[in-house]
Design brief:
The complex is a heterodimer of chains A (155) and B (163). Chain A is an all-alpha fold. Chain A is built from eight helices and no strands. Classes of the chains: A mainly alpha (155), B mainly alpha (163).
Chain lengths: 155, 163
C-alpha cells in the first residue's frame, strides 16, 4: 500500500518541483530542525520537572508554559515533514526507520496529551512515581525518535 | 582556504581518531546522531532563557529559576555537541574548513559566545534586581534577542553544511 502511495506521490508535479529546486529540501529541513529544537527544549523541561530535576516551579505552570511549545512545533514538523516526504517519497515511506519514527511520534504526543489531560483534572496527578516514570518514558521516546530520524539517511 | 591552515587540517585528518571516524561505517552516524540531539537541546534550552529575558515567555517564573532549570542541560548538551562536533570535523578537516556553511556556523558560534560572555559580565552584579521583573531592561532584552538570532543561525548554517 505504501509502495503504491510512494509511487503516486513521486508522479505528482509537486514532487518533481521539489526535486528540481535543490534549495527546497535543505530550507525545509532547516525549518524542521528548528521546530525540533523548540519541541525538544519543551519536552526536556517537562521531563526534568516530572523527574524532579529542575527548580520547584508548579507543574501546572510548567505545563502552561511548555505544552503549547510541543504542539505548535509538532504542527510545523508535520507540515515540513510532508514537504520532505513529497520531495523524496521513496526515501521516507519505504524506510523502516521512518515508519518506526512516525509510530514513536504518535506515542510521544499521546503521552503529552495524557500528561495535560490528567494534570488539568487533578494538579497532583503526576506527583511521585507516576510522574517520574512518565518523564523518563517521554525522554527515552525522544531519544529514539531523534535517532530514528537521523538514521533514515543511512539505511 | 588559507594555505597556512592546510597542513594543520591535514594533520588533524591524519590522526588515528580522525581516521577511525572516517573509515568506520557506523561511527560517524552515531556521533552525528549525538550531535543533533545535543544541539537541539542546547538551542531549545537557550531559547527558553532568551524568551524569558526578552520578557516574551515564562514571565511568572523568575529569571533565576529559569536558569537553574535550564543551565545544567544547556552546558551538558553543549559539552556533547562540542566533543561530537570536533570528532566529525577532524574526520574531514580539509573539506569542512573550506565549507562556507561551516565557516558561517563557527562565526555565529563566536558571536553567540561573545554575546553570552558580555551578558554575564554586565549582569554579574545586577541580575538579582531584575530577577522577578516581567520585562527586563532593554540591554537584557537586546542580548536575549541577539542570542536567539545567533543560535537559530547556528542550527540553520549547520543544516546547510551537508549540501
Amino acid at each position: 500500500m505504501l509502495e503504491a502511495l510512494s509511487r503516486a506521490i513521486a508522479d505528482t508535479s509537486a514532487s518533481a518541483y521539489i526535486a528540481d529546486n535543490l534549495w527546497i529540501t535543505p530550507a525545509v529541513q532547516s525549518v524542521h530542525i528548528l521546530a525540533i529544537a523548540a519541541l525538544s527544549g519543551s519536552v526536556l523541561m517537562i521531563c526534568l520537572r516530572l523527574m524532579g530535576r529542575t527548580a520547584d516551579i508548579a507543574l501546572s505552570v510548567v505545563d502552561r508554559r511548555f505544552s503549547p511549545w510541543i504542539w505548535w512545533p509538532a504542527l510545523f514538523l508535520l507540515l515540513s515533514g510532508i514537504v520532505l516526504v513529497v520531495g523524496e517519497p521513496d526515501r521516507e515511506l519505504m524506510n523502516i526507520l521512518f515508519r518506526l519514527k512516525m509510530l514513536l511520534v504518535i506515542v510521544l504526543l499521546a503521552l503529552v496529551a495524557l500528561f495535560q489531560r490528567r494534570l488539568r483534572g487533578n494538579p497532583d496527578a503526576w506527583r511521585g512515581v507516576s510522574g517520574g516514570l512518565l518523564g523518563l518514558g517521554m525522554a527515552l521516546l525522544w531519544v529514539a525518535i531523534v535517532s530514528a530520524g537521523r538514521w533514515i539517511a543511512y539505511i | 582556504m588559507y594555505d597556512a591552515l592546510l597542513p594543520i587540517m591535514q594533520g588533524l585528518e591524519a590522526t588515528s581518531v580522525a581516521t577511525a571516524v572516517r573509515e568506520s561505517a557506523w561511527l560517524f552516524p552515531v556521533i552525528e546522531t549525538l550531535h543533533v540531539m545535543a544541539i537541539v537541546l542546547v538551542v531549545g534550552t537557550i531559547w527558553i532563557v532568551d524568551l524569558r529575558i526578552m520578557g516574551l515567555a515564562s514571565a511568572t517564573s523568575s529569571i533565576g529559576r529559569i536558569l537553574t532549570s535550564t543551565l545544567p542541560a544547556t552546558w551538558g548538551s553543549f559539552g556533547v555537541a562540542l566533543a561530537t562536533g570536533v570528532l566529525m570535523f577532524i574526520s574531514s578537516a580539509v573539506i569542512y574548513a573550506d565549507n562556507l556553511a561551516f565557516q558561517l556556523k563557527m562565526l555565529l558560534l563566536l558571536f553567540a559566545g561573545t554575546n553570552m560572555l558580555l551578558f554575564h559580565w554586565y549582569t554579574r552584579k545586577g541580575l538579582h534586581q531584575w530577577d522577578s521583573v516581567q520585562t527586563p531592561p532593554s540591554y537584557m532584552r537586546i542580548a536575549g534577542g541577539a542570542s536567539f538570532v545567533f543560535w537559530t543561525g547556528v542550527v540553520v548554517a549547520g543544516r546547510w553544511i551537508g549540501f
